[in-house]
Design a protein that fits this description.
Layout lengths: L5 H6 L1 E5 L4 H14 L3 E5 L5 H12 L4 E5 L4 H10 L3 E4 L4 H9 L3 E6 L2 H10 L3 E4 L6 H8 L8 E3 L8 H6 L5 E3 L6 H5 L3 H18 L2
Parallel strand pairs: 1-2, 1-8, 2-3, 4-5, 5-6, 6-7
Helix pairs in contact: 2-3, 2-10, 3-4
Length: 212
């Protein structure tokens, strides 16, 4: 599992991208990557997400860590894998869906909030348990989960910002998912790529500070 998670650990921050069109998704991704965040989670709430994933991989290759988010059906898992997604993320952990995601051979990250849900995800064999919405408990909640699950790869998503990034990693995060504070919806709608690039740069700087 450690080898499978090397890319996620190294990347550190996954930008959770929701866009109204494929074109906006690509423009936003480029701004995020220019800012220094190379993990891009293209959610299936973005139209034609597999095409966006395919294009980003064609443009950046191994220089970016590109995957699919908001995977809610087995068909989406297959489509994302066929497009070249390196990881698949679901907001929850449904056994039949999780097994379909695992069958693709990609790194699988599924959502959980309670200890029972974390146990269920680990029992199914996911690579990473996505703690969502992490904003409900904050870094202290993630740290508390470390008691019963000291070695579980946990990735908080929701409520992550450059200001608290260090707290999440200190609490034991293997990586973090960043949505609104990075791929900001208002900036996306306004096509303010400079703002999104600046947001990414703040995340990249915060991550560099964490790693010394």
């Amino acid at each position: 599992m450690t080898d499978r998670l090397d890319r996620a650990r190294t990347t550190g921050v996954l930008a959770v991208l929701r866009a109204a069109t494929p074109e906006l998704a690509l423009e936003a991704s480029e701004a995020i990557i220019r800012g220094g965040v190379t993990g891009i989670e293209v959610t299936f709430s973005t139209p034609d997400a597999p095409a966006v994933i395919r294009e980003l991989i064609a443009r950046h290759g191994d220089a970016a860590y590109v995957g699919a988010g908001t995977v809610t059906t087995a068909e989406q898992a297959t489509q994302a894998a066929e497009a070249g997604a390196e990881f698949l993320v679901s907001p929850g952990t449904l056994p039949h869906l999780t097994r379909a995601m695992l069958d693709t051979g990609r790194v699988v990250m599924t959502g959980a909030m309670t200890p029972t849900e974390v146990m269920g995800a680990l029992e199914l064999g996911v690579d990473v348990v996505k703690i969502f919405p992490a904003s409900l408990g904050g870094p202290s909640y993630l740290s508390a989960l470390r008691g019963p699950f000291p070695t579980a790869p946990l990735m908080p998503t929701g409520g992550v910002s450059p200001l608290n990034l260090a707290d999440w990693f200190a609490a034991g995060a293997v990586a973090v998912g960043a949505g609104g504070d990075l791929a900001n919806s208002a900036s996306l709608a306004a096509r303010d790529w400079a703002d999104i690039e600046k947001r990414a740069a703040r995340f990249a700087a915060a991550l560099a500070a964490v790693r010394g």
